[in-house]
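ok so i was messing around last nite and threw this chain in just to see what happens. nothing serious, just curious
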Amino acid sequence: MTLAAGTRLGPYEILALLGAGGMGEVYRARDTRLARDVAVKVLPENFLEGEERRRRFEREARLLAALNHPSIAAIYSFEEIHGSPGSAASAPRHVLVMELVEGQTLRKALAGGALPPKRLVAIAAQVADGLAKAHESGIVHRDLKPENVMVTKDGGVKILDFGLAKLTQPTDASGELTQSPTISAATSAGVVLGTVPYLSPEQARGEAVNFRSDQFAFGSMLYEMMTGVRVFARASAPETMAAIIRDEPEPLASAAPTTPVPLRWIVERCLAKDPEERYASTRDLARDLARLRDGFTDASLSGAAIAPAARGGARRFWAAAAAAGVLAAGVLIGLMASRKPADGPPLWRPLTFRRGSIGGARFAPDGKTVVYAAAWLGRPVQLFTTRLDSTESTALPLPSANLASVSPKGVLAIVLPRESSGVVAEVSLAGGAPRELVEGALFDVAFKPAVADWSPTGDGLAVVREGQLEFPVGKVLVPASVGARVTAARFSPDGSRIAFALLKGPRVSIWVADRSGKTTMLCDGFDIVTTLAWHPRTGEIWFSSRERGSRFGVVEIQAVSPSGKRRVVARTPTLLTVEDITPGGGVLVRSDDWPTTMTCLPPGATREVDVSWLDFSTGADLSADGRDLLFTEGGAAEGSQGGVYMRKTDGSSPAVRLADGDAQSLSPDKKWFTQVTPEKIALLPTGAGEPKTIRIDGLEFIAAAFFPDGKRLLVQARSGGKLSRLYVQDLAGGPPRPLTSEGFGFDGLSLDGKQVVAEHRDGPVVGSVIVSVEGGEPRKVPGLLPGDSILRFDATGNGLFVLRAGMPARIDRLEVRTGRRVLWKEITLADPTGVTDMYSVQITPDGASYCYAFMRNLSRLYYVEGLR
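result:
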């Protein structure tokens, strides 16, 4: 029975009916206690039959009320209200009291047809952000449609009825929730057709639903906003549901040819029939739309048409490129079809369009074909070719490999993966099987160093392995030294010199070597240097870098001449790597976006928590009780100097910034942490207190960790250019006590402070050993495999937690006496795209809590004309 204006429901005075449906009637009402207007949804009486159903509804309503987001209409309360005796509302009523949103529904906004692209993206980005917030809280809408989205007068967006489809679902005979959609409660054909077109295929089949079902409904809404047409609407509800399950929509390239290409890709990905082909995280979807909204110009939002997309598998292929497509600035879309004026800005032409990580890339001898390595959509790295005049890439029929170099005759130098390193092999671009040449090269898709380069004169291959530069293979041209190693190398166009990057401590410098081994340093002082490339016209060496000491993470493309004269070619907040340069000056550039995530399992929790703070959160030490995490930031926010922070692992409170720089070890009482430079060990307070400094003449410090008693430090240091060794330093003073011979670094201390697990890199014992703090011969750790990383002792002191790198990451417990291994945990990601490894894994001694970080590398290749 509809309530008349003036009716009182407890403290709420009914003002007007706003709408009605299968889930109840919604009224505008006045809350007389708070003197504000609210929306009151009066639920049908049969919705809450049974005490168990009522308790479930109350529990879910409280969860929904906890949602706090500007794009979600708030639920204020769930109440049982008894009306005044004799009134129309005298029977007990169950009501939801909600935020009253002024404006019009998206359905009304669509009454005139498709929305202008700029308004469409502005609305879509807000809806996606609200969805992401709810999904992160474990709440799925289940009935997303234009009727449930309000657009306010100032352009804001509010999602209505969030989660109510779940709250009002009937239960089956067993008491479990059924998967019937909201239409199960509707009786009117009009109501059914108003909801059915936004079901996901899994909803239409009566299967279990999750957040990806909301993504499909959102994609259906976006399609309608772009075209003015309901994507799967048919003459009847059964026909519509059949179309949702079986049919592909009309391609947006023909249905909405003037909309931005990246927006089409986003919609196509949301409308994938298979839920696994949609977004692994709605937050990623929201980020894509936010970047599209913020990055594209008005001009790019009004056009950028391309040829109609293919159906089926090809549609899904291009849908996968959505995230990578919006990483670039929007102006690049407009530039794709234009030509650069002679004196105009550089022309950036995208060459790749899928989502994933790109490895090495080089021009083929013709200067128009590009060969590159890429790991798309979480798959293993593979070699591809493309052309400057094409948007397509072709996979080469070769094993998984990274690309290092292409010779003038079209021979590829590739790096094949092995357990802990790689093998350089050669193979013709024309075809054939790879022939292995050099073992021990570095294989790393994420960092992508140039570990091998063909001589342009055809007389061999220069390789970087074990920190030294060899040319020809087997002849050391630049040796490695203590604390210094070569990381990248590139021949000059005439083959007379080799440019190389040298990493010494935290600093990177650029050098050149002639064929006799004479070396000259050209420039110094960087904390990032990527692949080197010689410019054929200017004779300069181009590279991407970030200078040490920079407060923010500004990355520059720089050029340095053989005489050491340096200049900035371009300055950018993202990492751009110059991969190759044609004789005419065209530049092959790779763009990398490296979002980093830090995750913890707090004590007593059953679900992991994202505890990332800024843009490059990396764990340093986890307290023994698992409640506090010491971590560092070193990305664009903190720059090369870095910053030290501490926060609760449950993410319940903000992180506290403690100091510049980085951190290594947290004291057992959580009051101090160590910060190490070659000159000193600093003990810095996490709260009130004065810093303390330890300096020892003749020692160069590398690392320092607190003993469990908090009174001593385990120190790794070296003296006189020798290999490092371990020491015990009493914090009360006195000289350090040598614990090992030279050649040791440490991986952890036992909980009783009596044992150290250390890695011996030189001498009669090679590998990891157990060292007694009280003295005695080291004991080799049995059962370790190539690529293992020891994380720490367990609480018993008889076992070690050992990490097997890769994706997924496997952590075993290794018995130190027998070498017996038992799987402790396998860490997997729902979306492994661009992730090659876990790092900074921290575990409590009892194994009950842990933290880890991972970096998602998303890349794109560009051909740039006019970069000078």
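not much to say yet. The chain is about 15% helix and 40% strand.
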